[in-house]
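[audit] Reproducing an earlier prediction to check determinism. Same input, same settings, fresh worker. If the tokens differ from the archived copy the diff job will pick it up downstream; this log only records the rerun itself.
[audit] input (330 residues):
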Amino acid sequence: MNSKTPQPCPACCSDQSRFLFEGWDLWFGYPDSASVYQCRDCKHVFVAGVLTPEQLTDMYTNYCTRSSFDVENYVPYKEKNRLLHWLDGEEGLACRHVPKNVRVLDIGCGFCETLGYHRARGCDAYGVEADENTRKIAERYGFNVHLGLFDPAQYEPGFFDYVTMDQVLEHTVDPLTVLREVATVLKSPSQDTPGGRLVACFPNDHALGRLFFQRHWGGWHLPFHRHLFSRQSIAILAERSGYVVESMKSATQSCLLLQTWATIYCAGSRGKKADQAVETFGRFFDSEMRKRRDVSLYLFLKKIRFLSLSMRIADMLGVGDCRLVILRKK
């Protein structure tokens, strides 16, 4: 592909884009590079080209893998008191915006912590996950998870009160189609109730970390991340796919800044997998890894919530690593 050739914007359809850079995976050793463009009109940043379902399954099952996770270490998300909720940046988790006793679908449910959280709160919870390694977690704990890509045909129209996509929408090849498909499984508004809601969290294009960390900023995560949404582009996509934007703000889990520093320390090079500590994003370590001094330091800093106040200040200024959006079906 000629890097000088403008690519059509997947958000506003403008052909006025510019080439930014050629990037590649520094964490899992995925060999293919990615050409990154930005729309001059709506400021949407995107990776050119398309991926087949087979390519996506290969990427998430064989590279971004959960194969080393011991199902006995599974712990669902739990409620936190107000102080810890604020300090830990729990507003940056899509599941925290889902009320009790509703029917919810989590697209990209990962380790299924959200499904356990919703179940404990009386919700009828469903999940979707592209990584086949999630099967062992879902089967062990009895979660209703569709393994593969999201397919609206799996569910009745208007089946869900809420759909969540936590750090998922940026992975999709065609976000407009996905948003339209999600709208079909959300409840339509009626005289008595508003429409169903989609809660999505994704990297913030105005993040201070993007400027500071440059190529190593976690929001890039190429070629797994295909989009970096601007405020303009997400509003355009919402309008085109049948939603009203209820809220949009910077909301970031406090641990992400510490994880960024940790992944830079462990980072690999093009086509070379990073240190094993990156495999589960520093969330789970076996007993042998916990003996390492660098892992012990990471766990200690995470426990004392080192850098948490920095992320709270960044979110208040609108420059945290993540942006949370709540969309209501029209």
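[audit] rerun output stored. Observation attached for the diff report: The mean pLDDT is 91.
[audit] end
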